[in-house]
Write a sequence for this structure.
């Protein structure tokens, strides 16, 4: 009986140590965020790289209008300076379009799974070009917006 109690104690101790070691290894491994909540210049952005259905989501609130984008409506491009995340906020046939782009910096999260970040957004206005109205000169204008907020890792 003492031998089986001793074996049980050793097994429980081994499981505890294995679980503790695994938890420690996970907490020491840098994690990348998947949720960004940013604001600046009357603009509030919530961007999630994934969701319950596996698709990205982005909510854009400029203080006048709130719009939600998901899946293919959100375009991402990895670059040397970070990931560019773009949405088209306005499109018209003759007068052009407006694109909003966020620069998502590289981020490693610690065990708290959250970090304060500062980054930038760019509103790009494209002048419309048609055969009857070709618009000469510079066709794009830009407005830079300083954004700050949080980047965190959430599980869906």
């Amino acid at each position: 009986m003492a031998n089986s109690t001793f074996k049980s104690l050793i097994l429980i101790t081994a499981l505890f140590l294995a679980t503790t070691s695994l938890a420690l290894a996970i907490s020491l491994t840098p994690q990348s965020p998947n949720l960004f909540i940013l604001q600046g210049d009357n603009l509030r952005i919530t961007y999630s790289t994934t969701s319950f259905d596996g698709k990205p989501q982005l909510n854009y609130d400029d203080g006048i209008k709130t719009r939600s984008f998901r899946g293919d409506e959100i375009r991402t491009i990895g670059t040397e300076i970070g990931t560019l995340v773009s949405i088209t906020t306005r499109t018209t046939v003759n007068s052009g379009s407006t694109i909003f782009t966020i620069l998502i910096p590289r981020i490693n999260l610690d065990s708290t799974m959250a970090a304060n970040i500062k980054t930038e957004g760019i509103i790009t206005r494209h002048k419309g070009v048609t055969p009857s109205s070709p618009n000469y000169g510079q066709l794009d204008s830009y407005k830079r917006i300083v954004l700050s907020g949080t980047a965190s890792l959430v599980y869906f």
In short: The longest helix spans residues 2-28. The chain has two domains: 1-30, 31-152. Strands lie at 35-40, 43-48, 57-61, 66-70, 75-79, 82-92, 96-104, 114-127, 140-152. The chain has one helix and nine strands.
